[in-house]
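Lab notes, practical 5.
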Amino acid sequence: MHNNTALLKLNNISLKHHNQSLLSNVSLELSPRQIMTIIGPNGAGKSTLVKIALGLIKPDSGTVFRQAKLRIGYMPQRLSLNPLMPLSVERFLAMATKGNHVIDTALARTGISHLRKRPLHDISGGETQRVLLSRALLSEPDLLVLDEPAQGVDISGQTELYELINKLRDTLGCAVLMVSHDLHWVMAQTDTVICLNQHICCHGHPEHVSNDPAYLSLFGRRHAEAVALYQHDHDHQHNIHGDVVCEHHHHD
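Output from the prediction step:
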């Protein structure tokens, strides 16, 4: 990977809070069109790392490089809205952009044009995540940064959402930096996995990572075996316990 092609580079990033290490010597490099997924236990520093990558938090040490004029679309972990303020999907997106046609395009790309006039508090968890994803697309990003994009979405909706993210990568030609708990998705569709627990325990191609002792100690052998089973046969879908859910799942 040549340095000059990287969209984003973090070099030896460290951060402490009240003398407790949140991140220690973390380095990563993201190339155009690459999907990189950060996994790790709760409290591993995943969201903190994303915020440093975005420039929302300054690290104590280390350097952050973003390509000049890099357009980033960010989908935060949750939507905090005042429930007393009635806001339609359209109005919510209009707060982030001036162009109506930009909103049309973003809603069409995420498959929710029909929700345009609906109040935000009146749509499902999966639909809300698609609204947040639409907002992240408004800037026609070179890099999509998604923090737990499938949070609050049921299993079938998760699969659809992750497949949509993959499709958006191809349509927009953008890179994706994502925090995810859904290891089956990670193993099926990600180019690079980073296993984080304050420091990078292991990283690389999903198949390589799922056999790494550091990964096994974080996620347990039973889970790793379920994921390995999934890797070897992609014509169906597993739930979190490794059981087959349906037989008609497919990948391009």
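Observations recorded by the TA: The chain has two domains: 1-71+142-206, 80-140. Residues 1-71+142-206 form a domain with the Rossmann fold fold (CATH 3.40.50.300).
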